[in-house]
Amino acid sequence: MSLPPPLPIAEPSPTPDDAPFWTALSERRLVLPRCRQCGTYIWYPRTFCSACHTAGVDWVEASGRGSIYSYTVSRRGLGPWSDRAPYVIAYVELEEGPRVMTNIVGCDPDDLAIGQLVTAAIEIDQGAPALRFAPDQRGERLAGNAPAGRRQRLP
Description:
Mean pLDDT is 89; it is low at 145-155. Strands 5-4-3-6-9 form a 5-stranded antiparallel beta sheet, with no helix packed on it. Strand 7 (123-125) and strand 8 form a beta hairpin. It is mainly beta and 155 residues long. Helices cover 5% and strands 33% of the residues. The protein has 2 domains: 15-62, no CATH class; 63-137, CATH 2.40.50.840.
């Protein structure tokens, strides 16, 4: 199967809370806010902690690695997505802990699996960035979706 055409990218509307994320993404870097109080990585980017509810975060360079937590293949779409099917909508669990909703790109959607390792594939179209992921070149996957510290790599 040939790969589908590139997915559309919407122009972001940064707010003061998430501007560092969008700025870094436009530089092809992934940064996440991390709570100064409890150390929790926060998704969606904001300036307060969703775990301990304190204000104050540091923006930390993320690894860009994760695994597919859940996904679905859309075989048709609407508007600018209509001619891009099939495409993958997924939750990726980052090594840092948060789960992000994203697309998996650069592969045949029928070749994906829960637990499969993925790497950030930041795409930019006319200045607008998008955080997407592609299968890790090692082709490995993780056993289950337990917290990262308790995962095991499968052959």
